[in-house]
Design a protein that fits this description.
The structure holds two protein chains of two kinds. By secondary structure, chain A is mainly alpha-helical. Chain A has one domain. Chain A has a two-stranded antiparallel sheet. The radius of gyration of chain A is 23 Å and the shape is globular. By secondary structure, chain B is of the alpha+beta class. Chain B is 26% helix and 24% strand. The N and C termini of chain B lie far apart (73 Å). The chains are: A mainly alpha, B alpha+beta. Strand 1 of chain A pairs antiparallel with strand 1 of chain B.
Chain lengths: 297, 178
């Protein structure tokens, strides 16, 4: 049941879905830099541990420029804040806006990397098993949406190879090559639209929406899954309590507030930190176990 | 390849134009440049900025913002400024904010007369409830015009008032009757 070799994806879809749902909710609804850094750290470590070296390199190429862009754009548009650094066209560029931009960039990267981890761990059969009974349509849409990006990437490669065989992409000029990419992109979008329609037509031709249809899945809710779910809920409850008590509150405007460091705040940070690091911890545990068992042979 | 060089040069030129047309100033440069003396016979206007409506809606204001609310609610007591030809309410507010080091943020542009004052002295629209924001009166009345569209004449009295109830609290609260 563990095709992708990721330890964390061995859990039951219900446990995994609850885990990612809660993690993402907390990450999206906080501005606290400590919590966001922890969320980013957890997602970063898990992705680094499950990526190949080449994937990691591609990720760095994508996420680092995006991080910088988001961090730099915020002070250009947000002029709030009590500490102006300099004035641009009579509009202040403030320290608070710069820091807030960095924070937003951390948040964005954390959410995107967590979603990446989600799509790594939750394959389409898990989503179908999870939503198939409740809402078959939602299950198909979700599984199609999640597999869209990898599918498009593969198709992109196919189309550009076909175009190269036709003689495009020959020119050395960067801009002619850009024009070639635009052509590939337009072919890709057309294909994607057609493919989505085809898939749904094919699903209904096979009787996917018929009444009385049964779902088959191999997932069984074991004790380990129960413990995982309970752990997720317990850690989330502590974090939520911290949220409700205002321990995670943080504001950038008009002045950057200080991070709470009283005992309950630290408990909140710790609970959320463990929550966000859980997949990585499982990954490390599995590797250690494997090394240990091999050393005994 | 020749095409590439030309287009790259164009992009670099665009960036240069952007940087050169942007006016960069340090904080001190920005605030110092507006000191001016009023001479005898100059046309002048008066401007004041206040936020006393906040005290009636104290529970709606975020605690972090109290630091920026003066005790009597007067951010700028009535001050006289020279009226230059064609000065709008927005021009005078900008000048007052610069000479008195009052933080002010707006959206829109003065050239196209679409300025909207988002916040003064860190009090922004919606900072004190969902009906709050900055509003202005000229000679005790609220003109139904944008601040950058209202051209002033000699002796006008501008009041910038923070409202917590869509300007209703300004008109009833006695500012207009004073």
């Amino acid at each position: 049941m563990n095709k992708n070799g990721i330890a964390f994806s061995r859990f039951h879809p219900v446990s995994l879905f609850c885990y990612f749902l809660l993690l993402l909710l907390f990450t999206v609804f906080t501005q606290n830099p400590v919590l966001l850094t922890l969320a980013l750290l957890g997602a970063l470590l898990f992705n680094a541990a499950t990526n190949t070296a080449r994937q990691t390199l591609a990720d760095i190429k994508f996420y680092v420029p995006m991080f910088l862009l988001v961090a730099l754009v915020n002070p250009l548009f947000s002029h709030s804040g009590a500490t102006p650094l300099f004035f641009m066209n009579d509009n202040p560029v403030t320290l608070e806006a710069v820091l807030c931009g960095v924070n937003i960039a951390v948040q964005l990267c954390a959410v995107m990397l967590a979603c990446k981890a989600f799509s790594k761990v939750m394959e389409s059969d898990k989503l179908l098993a999870l939503f198939g009974k409740v809402s078959p349509k939602l299950a198909v849409v979700l599984s199609m949406a999640l597999r869209f990006i990898p599918l498009l990437k593969r198709k992109w490669g196919e189309i550009s190879e076909a175009q190269k065989a036709l003689g495009y992409f020959r020119e050395e000029s960067v801009f002619s090559r850009l024009a070639s990419y635009a052509r590939v992109f337009s072919a890709l979008v057309t294909w994607a639209l057609e493919n989505a329609v085809d898939t749904s037509a094919s699903m209904s031709a096979r009787g996917y929406e018929l009444a009385g249809k049964k779902h088959f899945s191999l997932f069984r809710f074991t004790r380990g899954d129960g413990i995982m779910l309970a752990l997720t809920v317990a850690l989330s409850a502590v974090t939520l309590a911290g949220f409700l008590l205002g321990k995670a509150d943080f504001a950038f405007y008009p002045r950057v507030s200080t991070v709470n460091t009283d005992i309950f705040s630290i408990i909140t940070y710790a609970a959320f930190g463990i929550l966000s690091l859980l997949p990585f911890i499982f990954e490390v545990k599995e590797v250690l176990k494997w090394k240990y068992l091999r050393s005994k042979i | 390849m020749k095409k590439d060089v030309i287009i790259f040069l164009l992009i670099i030129m665009l960036c240069a134009v952007f940087v050169l047309t942007t006016d960069f100033k340090t904080v001190d440069e920005y605030y110092l440049e507006n000191a001016e003396n009023i001479k005898e016979g100059d046309a002048t206007v008066f401007i004041s900025i206040r936020c006393d409506t906040v005290f009636d809606n104290a529970e709606k204001l975020a605690p972090a913002l109290w630091e920026f609310v003066p005790e009597d609610g007067v951010i700028l007591a009535e001050t006289e400024y020279v009226l230059r030809d064609g000065d709008t309410v927005f021009d005078i507010l900008t000048r007052a904010a610069k000479t008195r080091r009052i933080q002010m943020e707006y959206s829109g542009s003065a050239e196209s007369r679409t300025v909207y004052i988002e916040g003064i002295s860190h009090l922004y629209e919606f900072s004190c409830g969902e009906l709050s924001g900055w509003s202005y009166l000229v000679n005790g009345e609220i003109p139904q015009l944008g601040a950058s569209s209202y051209t002033l004449s000699d002796g006008d009295v501008i009041e910038w008032v923070y409202t917590c109830d869509l300007s209703r609290d300004i008109l009833q609260g006695g500012v207009a009757n004073e």
